[in-house]
């Protein structure tokens, strides 16, 4: 069964905002070459969830996971997104649509962010130079 993954992000007016998400999608594709990966955005950027879902359904995916790339599960993740996934299910009943928890709820992401925070407190060469001056 052909599988797809939609990485769902908020979106922003500045298209440069999407670059980290594009790198995540590319890395996922590298790690899972048989998986069809798409980015989708809530607003400002294309494609939106419906367009991304339609493209995966047309590409022959029969199971599509939707992973919200949000740190927390606020209104968009708890209310807006389930309604959009349900609309995709109605439009493409031959596809199994699976909404996953927000990435920010993952223990691995919490750990990674904690490690990044700790690393920011490590002295830099510039700080060492100032302390020894």
TrEMBL record:
Keywords: Lyase, Metal-binding
SUPFAM superfamilies in the cross-refs: Chelatase
Pfam families per record: CbiX
Protein's UniProt keywords contain Oxidoreductase: no
Presence of keyword Lyase: yes
Gene3D superfamilies: 3.40.50.1400
PANTHER family: FERROCHELATASE CHE1, SIROHYDROCHLORIN FERROCHELATASE, CHLOROPLASTIC
UniProt-recorded name of the protein: CbiX/SirB N-terminal domain-containing protein
Annotated source species: Ideonella lacteola
Lineage: Bacteria, Pseudomonadati, Pseudomonadota, Betaproteobacteria, Burkholderiales
